[in-house]
Amino acid sequence: MPKCSPCASPWSSLWLTSFVILVVQSVISSSYSSSSTYQRTAAGGKRPGFLRRTLVLLDVNTRSPIRVLNDNFLSLQLDPAIIRDGWLDFLSSRRLVTLARGLSPAFLRFGGKRTDFLQFNNQKNLAKFRGPGPDYYLKNYEDDIVRSDIALDKQKGCKLAHHPDIMLELQREKAATTQLVLLKEQLSNIYSNITITARSLDKLYNFADCAGLHLILGLNALHRNPDNSWNTSSTLSLLKYGAGKKYNISWELGNEPNAYRSMVGRAVNSTQLAQDYAKLRTLLQSVRYYNRAHLYGPNAGRPRKNAVVLLDGFMKNSGSVIDAVTWQHYFMDGRVKKAEDFLKTRLLDTLTEQITKVTKVVNTHTPGKKVWLGGLAPAWAGGINNLSETFAASFLWINTLGVAAVQGIDVVLRHSFFDYGYAHLVDQHFNPLPDYWFSLVFKRLVGPKVLAVRVAGLQRKPQPGRVIRDKLRIYAHCTSYYNPNYMRGSITVYIINLHRSRKKIKLAGTLRNRTVHQYLLQPHGEGGLRARHVQLNGEKLLMGKDETFPELKPKVLRAGRTIAMPPMTIGFYVIKNINAYACRR
């Protein structure tokens, strides 16, 4: 038997080694299609693992949406406390209406903790219902309000006003005094009734209608008969007045009914609440103008034990009566002192757990019923001074919108658009705060169709017993159809970078080599996370002197360019002209 010649072995080994190296390199270059990590030749002597952790590959499923939300997904809330502190009289402000119109289309929920202390009085404008004010200016102040109301009555269509600076300054002083009274009531759990007059309802509806918002009015569920059944007298009077004025209003009954025992020492169980909602539905059907009006509820509190029990019983007995299930969520109490607490991933992840609890109950009794987050704020009790109205709180807000959309929450109602506490979008000088600017950009760019995101290289392999919580959060939607700058088929990706370092995102798959419009939002000024101003692509966002919005100008990133996210920032990225099948219809 012949033997191999030893002379040929060195050349054969060298050729074989070269062939193997070539094959390995070709496999590595195409590894994205078959692997969840991205790899390239290490530069500067850095180990391959370094690149895997700093470069993230991003792709989006453009074939079909995973959720289709309400067109009014991002909506607003006003607290009834504005009747007590007097700000209701200033909802006709042209600037305030302009700011609200910027977030339309949306729902406007008029409700909150004091919903269950509202009493309707069918009278036009009685000074005794206006609440307290400092004696030295009360009479002149009231006279100014009456003169303003007379001037508004002469207008046709939207009734808008420009209030003098001195009048606004007096109102801010009055509101500050009243807020102390309201806070004392909240801490003592002893609440006084609030009268909503016919004139008050006129002003509220005028604001919503002029701003392009659909009003949802909360009714007092604690107005009870001696046998604990719901007293409908005030509600019937309100319905008749609204029908006579042809006000297009949707309705809800009560606010956090699971907390009634701690608030007023009287409990309303799920069976009684279901009967109350059935009675309200019958009442709406008896008033011809509202016989097809929408009804939402039960507006339960955070899904802890007693709230889940109430929601379960209510859905079992009366789930078919309502058009959507509403509940509330607050992330923290008022004792938080650091801006960095708003960026904790464990805090951001609590919403997913709460949504799971609520949807489980709803799907058990009424599968397919729409679920709304009917009251959402960073913190309870009106928020946290010098924190809830800063850039730091916007991480919670945008992550909430992203999580809620992916989980199929149909509408998110933000508490509060104006006035109450420290969690509002617009301050008492009618200036937009960071969460307002984020909401405006979201409304302009993000549509109701939610897309699945595919990410590679986002995090290292978790160790046994350790939970990896993502600090780079990525969500994708079809671009809003209301935006004239982008054709149908465009995609909007919004990214939250909670890291203290810059992160690079490379568009891959169907997004590869596409032109991208960047809307990068960062804090403006020296306050950092505590800043009350926002810059878009380096330009500070401010309302114009003529009460117009600034132009939201994108920064164009050339096709194939890597997205660089600065530390602790939020960015919106529109991939235009991609003609995504899911977004064309």
Automatic annotation (TrEMBL):
UniProt GO molecular function: hydrolase activity, acting on glycosyl bonds
Signal peptide: 1-26
Keywords: Signal
BP-aspect Gene Ontology terms: extracellular matrix organization
Database matches in SUPFAM superfamilies: (Trans)glycosidases
Database matches in InterPro entries: GH, Glyco_hydro_79
Similarity section: Belongs to the glycosyl hydrolase 79 family.
Record PANTHER family: HEPARANASE, INACTIVE HEPARANASE-2
Protein name per UniProt: Heparanase 2
Organism: Cyprinodon variegatus (Sheepshead minnow)
Lineage: Eukaryota, Metazoa, Chordata, Craniata, Vertebrata
